[in-house]
Amino acid sequence: MTEPSAGSLRVNGATLHFEVRGRGPLLLLVPGGTGGTASFDAIADHLATEYTVAAYDPRGMSRSALDDPEAEQRVAEHADDALRVLDLLSPGEPARVFGSSSGAIAAVHLLTARPDRVVHLVAHEPPLVEVLPDAAEHRALIARVGETFRTQGLMPAMSVFAAGLKKDSDSDSAGPQAEVELPPQAAARAERTMADLPYFVGRIVPSFMSYAPDVHRLQALSDRLTLACGQDSRGELPYRPAEFLAERLGTELVHFPGGHTGLTTHPAEFGEALLKTLAAGTAG
């Protein structure tokens, strides 16, 4: 694995850690969950054969420290962080963007707010549950997660959250289950992931999963947006908003290898699929 060059960027209320590798047009990777830049380690070198690949730890995660650890988190501010990284690394030139999960929500807001800075966005399983016809049920889920976190602690809250993300037929599942055994690199990140989980469950989940995108704006920008899902995620909650939006926007829903965490469990195939999707999305 090529050692990336690292830097830090002051933004409103935080200092972001970012990493850059490769040469060519900029591709900004926006991580979801508690992954940070490390979630892209297994695919970044492959992507860097064609792009200058930049990734960063979202504010409050890993090496991106908040000025105020108790600050409320907003999707618009996270999207502005992505914009600031773009402005630093690709001033005056729009860039390609990939976002996963909660990172895809921030990236969707970036596209709608500043389309002049985005050539094309690939949004992988953004849990934009507010677009769904049964959004009220998912608001109730997030409320249950928050209440469980406050009264019982982190792991019971994670069990409630994981059960709510499963297919209906899997609703008796007792908590998070990996799709496959994680490779050693992913397993080595477990300690950092656990350290970030309270912040993710307490601050990111309620804010991001209550975010309602501007669907009319996305309709106007649909030629710059690819909605993607894991081929093994069908029926799960993170799959459904992308499926719904693709149908609403009249665009193709692209399937990537694996499930919601396919970039970790199937990195080689995932990276190749992303390169193909980016090439197709910006053709001509």
Automatic annotation (TrEMBL):
Pfam families associated with the record: Abhydrolase_1
Limits of the AB hydrolase-1 domain: 25-137
Keywords for this protein: Hydrolase
InterPro entries recorded: AB_hydrolase, AB_hydrolase_1, AB_hydrolase_fold
Biological processes per GO annotation: glycerolipid catabolic process
Keyword Chaperone belongs to the record: no
Highest rank taxon of the organism: Bacteria
A GO term for molecular function: triacylglycerol lipase activity
Protein's UniProt name: Alpha/beta hydrolase
Species of provenance: Streptomyces alboniger
The organism's taxonomic lineage, starting at the top: Bacteria, Bacillati, Actinomycetota, Actinomycetes, Kitasatosporales
